[in-house]
């Protein structure tokens, strides 16, 4: 019983996974009530009516389809039939474009806001009003002004990821320890060098927290945005497969969204550790 | 006094009134001078504006009246010629020991290449006995070691004057003692002009050539300037054996315990001139007495009463 904690946790994870799969399998197995209807009609209605099996796919079905997707993730058979890897690629590109724009806007602007109490106070009411707006509420306005659904999706990602970074940067910059600024002042360090060599590293952990929150929100929003704008992307894929009544593919897409979200968060978590410091 | 290297002339600091309140003048009419190569300590109770005075001297704060003249020029802001050792070290935690010292050196010598900066930093890191810890981050150092880095950072820019705001007050007694010893030897070797704020009497007697006594705020003044009558080369180990030690110590203690508070009555004495506060030399011209009637070894008394 005295295995290391990590190993025990791993074992427990595997056990939970097996239990989950077993319950899932049992739940969708054909033991339900067989409908007492005309056999011809029952054939039309599919397996659930004939054998009592659920229309919900079992873990085996998911496994088989997942393998098919993984073995050919990037095929392109026209607008309604693209590989899941390709769809994920579109979504990631949109997120990175909107998020990247937000980074280059929010961090310098947040720096300015944090450095100047005047600007902080002047912009605060606008930020407080704009921040709680659901990013999707911007979509009609974006479609009307930008007139391009792809760019509108990127704009929505931009607008949802800009606020956490803006506020965290401003807060981080405004709360740099006075002592450290005094060190720079007594050493006659210029404003630019103070900003780069003192304020930026001092605020970096707070800024990175904002960046990490932003990418999380961006990845949440892209699915909904792509359901609206359609065409390409994992959000569109989910909605399309729902229209195809392919629950298997919907489940696989959900899984893929989770995995990519985790990877994005971990990547930024690694970056955050690089700039962290201990006082 | 008018020829001093650094002159504090009629300095006043008034904090603006909080809403509905009255403006508070922390200190007023503060006059004293610091000679080149001299070590001056300022002693006073909390609230007499010691830190504010040092911050004005460092250029981090502005005076409300009067001024400070360094080398014949009035100071207007912070300068590399006045290095500050902060009370809580104020090291940049994301930089290594070397990085922190180099940050200061690069500010002084922006044209130097990396090798030259490193060699210069190493000299001062060695001076404060931190050789081998160059690549450590401040969080990996003890409190005393952090303050050593602060000292190295301040000395590495080779300032005209070293300003210290109770630099050892956050340290334990043993660490404080060894750092005081090192500061004594560094200042003796480099003839560094220094100004230190402290409320530790023994620290002042050990380090200072001249001790400025400030009365309690608000409206604090320089009550008196005490010349250290103990000879140079004194050490923590043997200074208490010198006949002037107890007169010095009692004079300072008497000031902190009684006179700092009751000084307002002395102020009204027509003989008091804030521009020329009285200078005293305790022990000189007095019998080498031990006024504390502690029988036997005086050492334990010194320890308990010191801090």
UniProtKB/TrEMBL annotation, chain A:
<dbReference type="GO" id="GO:0042918">
    <property type="term" value="P:alkanesulfonate transmembrane transport"/>
</dbReference>
<keyword id="KW-1003">Cell membrane</keyword>
<feature type="transmembrane region" description="Helical">
    <location>
        <begin position="245"/>
        <end position="264"/>
    </location>
</feature>
<keyword id="KW-0406">Ion transport</keyword>
<protein>
    <submittedName>
        <fullName>Nitrate ABC transporter permease</fullName>
    </submittedName>
</protein>
<feature type="transmembrane region" description="Helical">
    <location>
        <begin position="153"/>
        <end position="174"/>
    </location>
</feature>
<feature type="transmembrane region" description="Helical">
    <location>
        <begin position="6"/>
        <end position="24"/>
    </location>
</feature>
<keyword id="KW-0997">Cell inner membrane</keyword>
<feature type="transmembrane region" description="Helical">
    <location>
        <begin position="218"/>
        <end position="239"/>
    </location>
</feature>
<feature type="domain" description="ABC transmembrane type-1">
    <location>
        <begin position="88"/>
        <end position="272"/>
    </location>
</feature>
<dbReference type="GO" id="GO:0005886">
    <property type="term" value="C:plasma membrane"/>
</dbReference>
<keyword id="KW-0812">Transmembrane</keyword>
<keyword id="KW-1133">Transmembrane helix</keyword>
<dbReference type="InterPro" id="IPR000515">
    <property type="entry name" value="MetI-like"/>
</dbReference>
<dbReference type="GO" id="GO:0015112">
    <property type="term" value="F:nitrate transmembrane transporter activity"/>
</dbReference>
<dbReference type="InterPro" id="IPR035906">
    <property type="entry name" value="MetI-like_sf"/>
</dbReference>
<comment type="similarity">
    <text>Belongs to the binding-protein-dependent transport system permease family.</text>
</comment>
<dbReference type="InterPro" id="IPR005889">
    <property type="entry name" value="NtrB"/>
</dbReference>
<feature type="transmembrane region" description="Helical">
    <location>
        <begin position="194"/>
        <end position="211"/>
    </location>
</feature>
<comment type="function">
    <text>Probably part of an ABC transporter complex. Probably responsible for the translocation of the substrate across the membrane.</text>
</comment>
<keyword id="KW-0472">Membrane</keyword>
<feature type="transmembrane region" description="Helical">
    <location>
        <begin position="92"/>
        <end position="114"/>
    </location>
</feature>
From TrEMBL, chain B:
<keyword id="KW-0547">Nucleotide-binding</keyword>
<keyword id="KW-0067">ATP-binding</keyword>
<feature type="region of interest" description="Disordered">
    <location>
        <begin position="267"/>
        <end position="307"/>
    </location>
</feature>
<dbReference type="InterPro" id="IPR003593">
    <property type="entry name" value="AAA+_ATPase"/>
</dbReference>
<comment type="similarity">
    <text>Belongs to the ABC transporter superfamily.</text>
</comment>
<keyword id="KW-0813">Transport</keyword>
<dbReference type="GO" id="GO:0005524">
    <property type="term" value="F:ATP binding"/>
</dbReference>
<feature type="domain" description="ABC transporter">
    <location>
        <begin position="6"/>
        <end position="241"/>
    </location>
</feature>
<dbReference type="InterPro" id="IPR003439">
    <property type="entry name" value="ABC_transporter-like_ATP-bd"/>
</dbReference>
<dbReference type="InterPro" id="IPR050166">
    <property type="entry name" value="ABC_transporter_ATP-bind"/>
</dbReference>
<protein>
    <submittedName>
        <fullName>Nitrate/sulfonate/bicarbonate ABC transporter ATP-binding protein</fullName>
    </submittedName>
</protein>
<dbReference type="Pfam" id="PF00005">
    <property type="entry name" value="ABC_tran"/>
</dbReference>
<dbReference type="GO" id="GO:0016887">
    <property type="term" value="F:ATP hydrolysis activity"/>
</dbReference>
<dbReference type="InterPro" id="IPR027417">
    <property type="entry name" value="P-loop_NTPase"/>
</dbReference>
<keyword id="KW-1003">Cell membrane</keyword>
<keyword id="KW-0472">Membrane</keyword>
<dbReference type="InterPro" id="IPR017871">
    <property type="entry name" value="ABC_transporter-like_CS"/>
</dbReference>
<dbReference type="GO" id="GO:0005886">
    <property type="term" value="C:plasma membrane"/>
</dbReference>
């Amino acid at each position: 019983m005295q295995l290391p904690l990590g190993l025990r946790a791993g074992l427990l994870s595997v056990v939970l996974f097996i239990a989950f799969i077993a319950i899932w399998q049992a739940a969708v197995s054909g033991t339900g009530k067989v409908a007492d209807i005309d056999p011809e009609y029952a054939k039309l209605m599919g397996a659930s009516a004939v054998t009592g099996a659920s229309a919900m796919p079992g873990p085996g079905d998911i496994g088989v389809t997942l393998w098919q997707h993984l073995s050919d993730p990037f095929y392109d058979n026209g607008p309604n039939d693209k590989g899941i890897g390709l769809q994920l690629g579109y979504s990631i590109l949109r997120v990175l474009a909107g998020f990247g724009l937000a980074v280059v806007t929010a961090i310098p602007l947040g720096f300015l806001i944090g450095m100047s109490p005047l600007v902080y106070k002047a912009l605060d009411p606008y930020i407080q009003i704009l921040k709680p707006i659901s990013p999707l509420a911007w979509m009609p306005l974006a479609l009307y002004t930008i007139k391009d659904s792809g760019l509108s999706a990127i704009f929505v990602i931009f607008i949802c990821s800009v606020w956490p970074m803006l506020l965290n940067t401003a807060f981080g910059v405004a709360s740099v320890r006075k002592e450290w600024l005094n060190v720079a002042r007594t050493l006659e360090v210029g404003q630019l060098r103070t900003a780069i060599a003192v304020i930026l590293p001092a605020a970096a952990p707070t800024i990175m927290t904002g960046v990490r929150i932003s990418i999380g929100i961006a990845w949440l929003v892209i699915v909904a945005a792509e359901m609206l704008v359609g065409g390409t992307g994992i959000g569109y894929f989910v909605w399309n497969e729902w229209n195809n009544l392919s629950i298997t593919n919907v489940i696989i897409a959900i899984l893929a969204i989770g995995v990519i979200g985790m990877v994005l968060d971990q990547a930024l978590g690694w970056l955050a550790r690089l700039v962290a410091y201990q006082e | 006094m008018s020829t001093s290297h650094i002159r504090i002339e009629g300095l006043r600091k008034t904090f603006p009134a909080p809403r509905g309140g009255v403006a508070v003048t922390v200190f007023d009419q503060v006059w004293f001078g610091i000679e080149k190569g001299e070590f001056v300590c300022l002693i006073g109770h909390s609230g007499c504006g010691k830190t504010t005075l040092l911050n004005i001297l460092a250029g981090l704060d502005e005076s409300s009246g009067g001024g400070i003249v360094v080398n014949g020029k009035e100071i207007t802001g912070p300068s590399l010629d006045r290095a500050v050792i902060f009370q809580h070290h104020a090291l940049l935690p994301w930089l290594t020991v070397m990085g922190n010292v180099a940050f200061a050196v690069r500010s002084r010598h922006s044209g130097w290449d990396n090798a030259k900066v490193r060699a210069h930093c190493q000299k001062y890191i060695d001076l404060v006995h931190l050789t081998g810890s160059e690549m450590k981050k401040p969080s990996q150092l003890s409190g005393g070691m952090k303050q050593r880095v602060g000292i190295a950072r301040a000395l590495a820019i080779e300032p005209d004057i070293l300003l210290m705001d109770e630099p050892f007050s956050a340290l334990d007694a043993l660490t404080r003692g060894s750092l005081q010893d090192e500061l004594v030897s560094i200042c003796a070797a480099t003839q560094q002009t220094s100004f230190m704020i402290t409320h530790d009497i023994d620290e002042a007697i050990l380090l200072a050539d001249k001790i400025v006594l400030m009365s309690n705020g608000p409206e604090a003044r320089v009550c008196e300037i005490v010349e250290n009558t103990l000879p140079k080369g004194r050490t923590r180990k043997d200074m208490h054996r010198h006949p002037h030690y107890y007169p010095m110590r009692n004079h300072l203690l008497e000031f902190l315990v009684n006179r700092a508070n009751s000084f307002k009555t002395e102020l009204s004495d027509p003989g008091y001139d804030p521009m020329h506060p009285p200078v005293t030399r305790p022990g000189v011209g007095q019998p080498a007495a031990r006024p504390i009637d502690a029988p036997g070894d005086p050492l334990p008394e010194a320890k308990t009463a010191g801090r």
